[in-house]
Amino acid sequence: MDYMTLLLILDSTVRLGTPLLLACLAGLFSERAGIFDIGLEGKMLAAAFFSGAVAAVSGSVWLGLLAGIGASLVLSALHGLASITFRGNQLISGVAVNFLAAGMTVVIAQDWFHQGGRTPSLMGGGRFTPITLPFAETLQDVPVIGPLYYHLISGHTALVYLAFACVPATWWLLYRTRFGLRLRAVGENPAAVDTAGVSVVGLRYAAVAICGILCGIAGAYLATALQAGFVKDMTAGRGYIALAALIFAKWRPWYALSATMLFGLLQAVALRYQNIDLGSFTIPVQVMDALPYILTVVILAGFVGKAIPPRAGGEPYIKER
Amino acid sequence: MTGTAPAIELRGISKAFGPVQANKDISIRVMPGTIHGIIGENGAGKSTLMSILYGFYKADKGEIFIHGQKTVIPDSQAAIAAGIGMVFQHFKLVENFTVLENVILGAEDGRLLRPSLARARKELKRLAEEYELNVDPDAVIEDIGVGMQQRVEILKALYRQADILILDEPTGVLTPAEADHLFRILDNLRNGGKTIILITHKLREIMEITDTVSVMRRGQMTATVTTAETSPEELAELMVGRKVLLRVDKAPAQPGDVVLAVENLNVTDEKGVQKLRDVSLSIRAGEILGIAGVAGNGQSELLEVLGGMCTATGRITLNGDDIDLSGRQSDGQSRRARGIAHVPEDRQREGLIMDFHAWENVAFGYHTDPAWRRGPLMDNAALQADTARKMEKFDVRPPDPWLAAKNFSGGNQQKIVVAREIERNPTLLLVGQPTRGVDIGAIEFIHNQIVALRDQGAAVLLVSVELDEILSLSDRVVVMFDGQIMGDGPASTANQIGLGCLMAGMGGADTTAMAGWTISDAAAPELMQEG
């Protein structure tokens, strides 16, 4: 494999890993606050549809992004209402969000656009365009670093750079601010937060809201940056892969970056090498496409070290005497 | 008492949960700079009253005055603002946070953590010097002992400028040495002008440290007295409403042959932690052997092995016959068939099925007995009649075999379990925490039943974290620490201080001073410096 191929694979790793990273960080905020969120998938899907639809109608990708975030926030609020206010089962609420999004997007898409459950293809201002970083063109011919800068670092959409900036930002917020301390505490022992005179409900809603915003960006990225428009079930299990990555990352921001990029790499490899010829037999394309999902199963089955989830995760907080 | 206003004054506090009147017209005055004890049986309403004071519940009626000012406390935030700090029985700490992070949680100075942490570090140093509250600020909570964790809770309250401190059953999880340290801290706090409310059901602690004491019974305040002018007997009577015998009245043991012999018992749990290390002991017929130790030092595992709930290596014989430790005969059913009865430590999880009727619970474990068989079915009518008889004999209230186990009070639940096990006339009775969460009246009854069984010639193994219970009930005492036996000897020569040292894994002069005691080499010879 030559250097150029490597760069191209890594480049598509970044593009494919970005929605996973955003969703993974979304899950990180929610789960660190003690709210398990299996509904990342549904929120992304709803965001993908509404961003695609609004961008198609208005022609503005930024309006699309806002619509995507809005849709995701509405579903987040629903999840919050069920699991925080009404102390329902968080898994069931999350599954409900997924079903709701899967059904609703296709039905509304068909009703609005009559294109078989997809939105019209986005063109021009309806899509996020790649940003060429300064000097990328001029430095392109510098050996090694030039192509690296031009192909891998430069030339992504704004959302990719935003996603990567979210990693240190999340770390800083979690470990260096009052909000982060309280957020981590509420996922470990809400009673400690409550007796310290801080609202458990408020903190958890805040976490779920941040989760909604990040899922919204992830969904909008799928429809308006990675592809040009919404198609049915376009998230393709990315929400679940993000959850697996979150466990793999042990609920830490920097690990989340590595974990999601590993999944991105597998997807990139699967895209590039559809059939791998091993001489005596050929690994079929289906195996390659299934790789990220196989890894997900392996991780969820607990083969990768011991991951201790936030201790109060999944448990609604009920004040005791 | 003229001039200064009480630090806390409650006037006519009432609180009902549905039909249950948890607090009824309660009034107390606690003067600043004093330690005020609140004593009462389980369910007497102590915790409810303190929850009202800390803003968890809103009183139906009544007023709260803090330093003479009428104060409304709708939530914990308001309680903190009023200068009230609370140390709960179950600590409210974030396990994987450092001490420092736990202390500032909810009381940060600003949006960024760094300045708050720096200030808290300084403040903790000052408090440590002032009140003997030494804690490593960078230690992670899950790595430090319970005594230390409790100090963190006190520090949390002090960091929030609390001048009224409420402690709910603070010594339940502490070794005697740790409890002494806590009392020294409380004494220092009192000298520093803080007001302390101590909730407990241990009369000894009340007598030792409080200035005044209030007694609660069935939601009402029955008396408030000056500690120096009262006696444990008087307080016990006020708590229960009748005269109670605090000492167990028992004749000297008449030990017979060895019933149970345990040799080199080892247990390793699924995480690979060794829970029992070469434990050897024996119990004779007509003898009560007490196992003393702080919770979690292997006593539970010992009970579980003997009761057939967990496997082990080593050798156990009952009346000279081997007992299967890991094979097909190592389950509870086989143990019961051999005459080993078991009152487990956690009655609600292991002793009873809470949703089942009393008679079903009394049948459990013995339901395969041919005596209760009628053809292929169980003879339910006979079981119900038998249960009614046992409930009568053990004074279970209400004596209704059809009531679900969960609807009995803690003491009566325990009586059901004890009745089931003792009435089988076992050769060996295993008893874990027989009186945990049980009121004084029922404690007296259960203790007498255990002694009566001993006098009939049964061997009894008693595990309890209550040292008083061990000392008053046992004939011989074994102390366990970290899965090992630290020492054993007669109960008559044992004392709190010596046992306390052994419970912390230490030997030394206090332990060898106990006549007739064998101290294990595993016990550290010197007193370790407390952190």
TrEMBL record, chain A:
GO terms for cellular component: plasma membrane. It is found in: Cell membrane. GO terms for molecular function: transmembrane transporter activity. Its main location: membrane. It comes from the Bacteria. Keywords: Cell membrane, Membrane, Transmembrane, Transmembrane helix. The chain crosses the membrane at residues 6-28, 63-84, 91-113, 148-174, 205-224, 254-270, 290-309. It is a multi-pass membrane protein. This is Nucleoside ABC transporter membrane protein.
UniProtKB/TrEMBL annotation, chain B:
Residues 8-243, 260-507 form the ABC transporter domain. The keyword Cytoplasm does not apply. Keywords: ATP-binding, Cell membrane, Membrane, Nucleotide-binding, Repeat, Sugar transport, Translocase, Transport. It is a peripheral membrane protein. PROSITE patterns: ABC_TRANSPORTER_1, ABC_TRANSPORTER_2. CDD domains: ABC_Carb_Monos_I (cd03216), ABC_Carb_Monos_II (cd03215). One of its GO terms (cellular component) is plasma membrane. It holds the Pfam family ABC_tran. GO terms for molecular function: ATP binding; ATP hydrolysis activity. Its main location: membrane. It is found in: Cell membrane. The keyword Cell membrane applies. Belongs to the ABC transporter superfamily. This is Nucleoside ABC transporter ATP-binding protein. It comes from Thalassovita litoralis.
